[in-house]
Structures are given as C-alpha cells and as structure tokens.
C-alpha cells in the first residue's frame, strides 16, 4: 500500500431486539429466564474498521440496502479527504449497484474496493469485532426498546474508538 492511503475492512451486521442467547451460569437447580419482545424488531449496522489505526466507522440504519452501503462509503471518504481508501469486503449484492458505482466515480480514483471470496467470513477481521459487540452488548440482554439497544450499540463503538488499541487487538492487527 502506498503512502497517503488507508485500509479498511467493512461489512454489515444485524442489531436484533431479540437477545442472543448464550450459555451462562445460574443458581443450581434454577433456570435463568431471559425476557424477549413480542415482535421481532431489528436495525442494521454498516461498518468498517481501519486496519492500521483500529478506528471504526459505523452507521445504524433501518435497512441495509444499496443506499445505506453508499452512505458508509461516503462517510469513510469524508474521514479521509485526501488519502486513497482501500476497502475489503464480501461479495454481497448490495455492494454492487449504481449507487455504489456513483460513489466510486465521485471519489475520482481515491476509493478502491477489494472483494473477498464468497462465503469466507474468516477472511474479514471485522467479523471478530461484530462477535465482540454481541458478547458485550446483546448476549442474554433484553433492552427496554430497540432505541435503547441501538444506543448501546453506538456506545460500544464510541467506547472502542476512544481506545483503538482494543479494536486492533480484537481484529488481530498490530500497531505499525
């Protein structure tokens, strides 16, 4: 990678109001009860992690369509107005569209998209960040509302953006 460039891994993730259930300790002979909402409600996160700095760019939206993917690309480009931005992500259909192409054209060669092989999440280190998010925020946890859950998601990423060494550790990157 040439000087004056940054490298991101990007992907989308679900923010479901249904708590993710994991094994947990409970009093002997008693089953731990986790309440769940009556209706499945979800939001979506679209995010990217800077491999070198550990900083994240995460948007929460009602949908994860092509428009929202284009918004993520625009947000990353806005953080790096003069650098060349490389983004590695999967081959999702939402990553190839006129709206994404318009962002590419508008970046005038400053945005380079790299596509990972289909069905290979182990090649995208941001998956480890999503896993950590679920461990810390949603596992066995019921929020009062979907808005409270989205706010907890934002707080998680805000917290880790203040200590990017923690994100680098989670995704397996080392400071350069």
Question: What characteristics describe this protein?
Answer:
176 residues; alpha/beta; five-stranded mixed sheet; 5 helices; 5 strands
Secondary structure category: alpha/beta
| Oligomeric composition of the shown chains | single chain
Supply Rg. Answer: 18 Å
pLDDT < 50 stretches: none
Largest sheet: 5 strands, mixed
Strand content: 15-25%
- Count of helices? 5
Query: Percent range for helical residues?
Result: 25-40%
Q: Taking all residues together, what is the mean pLDDT?
A: 86
Strand order of the largest sheet: 3-2-1-4-5
Question: Shape, please?
Answer: globular
Number of DSSP strands?
5
Short description:
With 176 residues, the chain is an alpha/beta fold.
Describe this structure in words.
- With 176 residues, the chain is α/β, with parallel strands linked by helices.
- It is 35% helix and 22% strand.
- It contains 5 helices and 5 strands.
- It is globular, with a radius of gyration of 18 Å.
How are the SSEs placed, and which strands pair?
Blueprint: E1 5-16, E2 42-50, E3 56-61, H1 66-79, E4 84-89, H2 98-106, E5 111-115, H3 126-138, H4 146-162, H5 164-171
Parallel strand pairs: 1-4, 4-5
Antiparallel strand pairs: 1-2, 2-3
